[in-house]
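User: Hello, can you help with two protein structures?

Assistant: Certainly.
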Amino acid sequence: MIGMLGRMSSPGNPSDSGFGSHRLQTSAPDGTLIAFDVYAGAGRSGVVIIPGFWRTRRYPALCAIASRIASELAPCAILDCRGHGESGGVFEFDRLEHFDVAAVARRFAEHSNLDRLILMGFSAGGALAISTATRHTDLTLSGLLLVSPVAEFRRVVPRPNPFTIHRHLSLGQALAKPRFRWPGIDRLSPLEDAARLALPVCLIHARNDWLVSHRHSEAIARLASNATLHILDVRGRYHADRLFEVAGERVWPIVSDFVRSAFSR
């Protein structure tokens, strides 16, 4: 399963602390409703967070990341990918999801009066960020920030340690599974799309990540024309948003430097 499973946050009220200042929704071209939260911040540039598979926009670690980005760097939005949380549809691992991300990016920019955006994708969300950037050139993007991204879904081979798997998984979210199906041959290839990227790309990955190997980030970095790769030696082989919890003192400076640099261009 793409995206580290963990404790599910309760829906709560979007105006409550931790859930952003506005709960909004938009429609993908096929009519699927996509829910997202906006975290207000200063400036005319914003960050769109794309969670990984099985993650929702109300997952506590992602809420904390969005809150910090909004308070320190830029306005932030975080969506429920189709098939997750309050969004409609069925998740198909990079077939139609790029339309959802693009629709949220446009609505977020309009709502918050933004000129430029960075797409920040976690795990499977990293693949969606790449596909969105290469297919929706009307978006004014300043860069992609990819944390433990998937380069090819067929090459995701989880390697859990049976003695430490409890640190990565919990029953609470495992039981609240999203609606999904594996698509046919029309699924997109993030790795092929990476070769078309001209934007600045920042990749952050733990070496020997238990779920998505750091080789995925290495493959993306080799193909993208303007990529910066950060492979971190993190004890515990943590994945995606968990890196911010266990190695935040190393991850946050990378994120901050990239966001500030991308928006200053």
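That covers the first. Now for the second protein you mentioned:
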Amino acid sequence: MRPNKIREIWKSGGVVANGWLATPAAFTAEVMAHCGWDSITVDMQHGLMDYQIAVSQFQAISTTDVVPFVRAPWLDAGMIMKVLDAGAYGVICPMINNGEDARQFVHYASYPPLGTRSFGPIRASIYGGSDYTDKANDEIIRMAMVETSEGLDRVEEIVGTEGIDAIYVGPNDLANALGQRPRLDTENEVVLKAFEKIIAACRAAGKPVGLHNGTAPYAVRMIEMGFQFVTVQSDAGILRNAATAIVAEIKGGAAKIDTSSY
């Protein structure tokens, strides 16, 4: 089976730079895949893609050695199994609140005896190799999202669940749950303390933790705090910010030019 490069990065103590797709287009996925990310996540929770678009994005990502991840819409056995069958090498599952949620997630994303995933790797065996089903449980990454007050309170049992490989922090939902204003790149002390608690639990369990960020400088700061998997914005957010900056520069420059004689 094709090795999961993200596991290798973590094993060596490295940090993963993760791209994020919200736009339902294979070409966007292909462009992002050629930008140097270690992994790219197809966001099926809040992104605008359906299953067929997600498959085409996995195919586009496969033009490179970038590792394809997906954020599942929910803790749903059918969808988790289908994205894995399509070739996702990592699944980020939202709203994992306790050990029982974590165990269900592992069951849905793992073949027996670890789980109850149904056999049928229709594209995964093409992408991963003919021995995919023999090694999938060891190579696929299962990341549980901690983003609620209950999840924060019970983060130790979540990260300690057999088969959970890492935690991914949803900062906006976590802030909401803690009665704080949701925002990326937060400076809110309540939320930052929650980050520290999650990092401590993951370190104690010997498992990595990831975070969604708004800017690269903040992501680097979060790496210093202890995060080993960092996402910055999404394809849509990057496009919006870059285009806004270009338009502002053009209009700002034009305003300084006397065009009355044109």
